[in-house]
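Feature request, filed as a ticket because there's no other form

It would be nice if the structure record came with a short human-readable summary line next to the tokens. Right now we just get the raw output. Example of a typical job, pasted below so the devs can see what we mean:
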Amino acid sequence: MNEPFALDGRVVIITGASRGIGKGTAHAVSRSGGSVVLVARTADDLEAVAASLPGPSRVVVGAVEDPAVADRAVAAAAELGDLWGLVNNAGISPYYHPAAETSDDEWDHILRVNLRAAASFSRAAIPAMAATGRGGRIVNLSSIAAFAGLPNIVAYNATKAALDAMTRTLAVELGPTGILVNSIAPGTITTELVGELMDANPALAEKFVSKTAMGRVGTVDEAAWPIVFLLSDAAGFMTGQVMLVDGGRLAAA
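Raw output as currently delivered:
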């Protein structure tokens, strides 16, 4: 039997791979023996990530909400081998105001990136995974925002809850094929953006820390390695689930 946590020879597509949890996941997958297809908008950033990985990779530049980018990512994966995994990590939360002030354009923007893109990438990846006869893995990046009524980000919250619903539906539909579908829901993780916010606003940093049972925020690695677990054989009887990685944030609510 292979090492259950290893990803040797397995090909994984990661969206939003140029920074944050996506970048961290690319490193974790590569260190675990996998090959990665890196997807994001910025070529220079993606090339820098690719150059820093210990294993094989391909770069696909484009907006994840464009279905053609999903097709190109699956084609790039085929250059590396059989597609095993998809990590729908790309997401945005660029607006911060009450629900009554959230415009239709803002709703549409967040829905396109956070939800419809994950659907497009899944739709493109599923046939490629099924064709191998070995199954596969889809991991969707949810958030504790799917469980809590966090104010001023209503569209973001809604997309994450919808993403979890899609996870459960795909898990039921794809179970007989061996393609397992799960979500991971991080709490506050010190990505580049969050780190900058905390450095600029100590009161906000203290708020983030005080809300977790562990008394600290999480690191990118602490979000990335659970994703590797969900991609691995160690999670072989796990599907349709949402894994909280939040330092006890919701338990302490």
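Something like this underneath would help us a lot:
DSSP finds eight helices and seven strands in the chain.
Strands lie at 11-15, 35-40, 57-61, 83-88, 136-141, 179-186, 242-245.
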